[in-house]
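testing teh design pipeline on a random one, pls ignore if ur not involved
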């Protein structure tokens, strides 16, 4: 009887265990089963995945350029300060190029003279004979006469218009270099050292005397002898004049404006002296060319002379190109579109070649 009860007890326990396990499985399944509205149906399709990553680091411009001049000189202009936006080719700063510009004018005048002489030699060597030669000589002598008179007018006009305004008593035997200019309530002065003023005053007296002698010679240009005499006096006066203006420019151009008003005042006189130098250079070139043409018309030219003059023209062209290249070095330009980050160039200061005066970074491109 006991064995039967034990057996029935085991059976009951087994049945209860099955019921418990089944109920647990059913409950779990019920909980995991999705309810209506708990899910969505969509059509599968191919798309690119975009992943955003946050990180820390240093951002730098793709281009950062340090700029320096290729030659030494005094800064005369600053075109862009720190923070300014610039385009490629914009002027960052420039050096005073007044002396180089004067050299360029002289070189260009020399080149013009060399070319005209070559042209004259080639014409003289072309085989003109008889009456044609006489006409050529007469015409070239007449042209020389005209150039002598025209050159004197240019030189004298430059003196009266641009130079005399820098002197007290300019037309007397005692010209005195140095002036004071009033602009509003501000007074500006243009003067030299004692030795500079003494030299300039002495040169002024000499030039005035030479111009007077030249004018006297021009009063009678009736024949070849008189014309050649006036030509010699004119060339001597113009060469002295050129040296005088170079000394005068050295003093006048030494003034560095501190503001816009000063730049206007000093710039007027500096421009005037530069114009006088250009007039004298033109007068010398015209007179020299006319004389060369006259001499060539009288002498004729050999192939060897023409060849030598062709070499002289090439040399003069190289001189002009060289000076223009040096003038280009006085201007500092931005090599790219960007932003000025440093600017150490200051008007009036002297900079050395290779010294960094400004920096520019590229616009937009960073890394």
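output:
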């Amino acid at each position: 009887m006991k064995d039967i009860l034990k057996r029935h007890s085991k059976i009951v326990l087994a049945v209860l265990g099955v019921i418990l396990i089944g109920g647990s499985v059913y409950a779990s399944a019920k909980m995991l089963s999705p309810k209506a509205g708990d899910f969505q149906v969509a059509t599968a399709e191919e798309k690119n995945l975009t992943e955003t990553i946050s990180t820390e680091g240093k951002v730098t411009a793709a281009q950062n350029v340090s700029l320096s001049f290729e030659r030494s000189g005094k800064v005369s202009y600053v075109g862009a300060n720190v923070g300014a936006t610039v385009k490629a080719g914009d002027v960052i700063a420039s050096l005073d190029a007044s002396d180089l510009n004067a050299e360029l004018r002289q070189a260009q005048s020399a080149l013009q003279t060399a070319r005209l002489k070559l042209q004259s030699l080639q014409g003289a060597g072309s085989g003109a004979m008889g009456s044609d030669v006489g006409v050529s000589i007469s015409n070239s002598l007449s042209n020389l006469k005209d150039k002598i008179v025209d050159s004197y007018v240019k030189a004298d006009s430059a003196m009266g218009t641009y130079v005399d305004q820098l002197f007290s008593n300019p037309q007397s035997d005692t010209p005195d270099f140095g002036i004071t200019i009033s602009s509003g309530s501000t007074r500006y002065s243009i003067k030299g050292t004692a030795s500079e003023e003494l030299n300039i005053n002495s040169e002024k007296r000499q030039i005035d005397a030479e111009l007077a002698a030249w004018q006297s010679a021009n009063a009678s240009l009736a024949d070849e002898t008189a014309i050649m005499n006036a030509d010699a006096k004119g060339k001597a006066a113009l060469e002295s004049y050129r040296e005088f203006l170079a000394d005068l420019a050295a003093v006048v151009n030494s003034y560095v404006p501190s503001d816009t008003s000063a730049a206007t005042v000093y710039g007027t006189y500096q421009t005037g002296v530069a114009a006088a130098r250009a007039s004298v250079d033109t007068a010398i070139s015209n007179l020299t060319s006319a004389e060369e043409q006259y001499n060539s018309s009288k002498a004729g030219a050999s192939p060897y002379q023409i060849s030598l003059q062709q070499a002289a023209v090439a040399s003069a062209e190289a001189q002009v190109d060289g000076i223009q290249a040096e003038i280009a070095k006085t201007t500092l330009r931005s090599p790219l579109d960007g932003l000025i980050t440093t600017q150490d160039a200051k008007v009036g200061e002297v900079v050395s070649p290779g010294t960094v005066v400004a920096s520019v970074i590229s616009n937009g491109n960073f890394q």
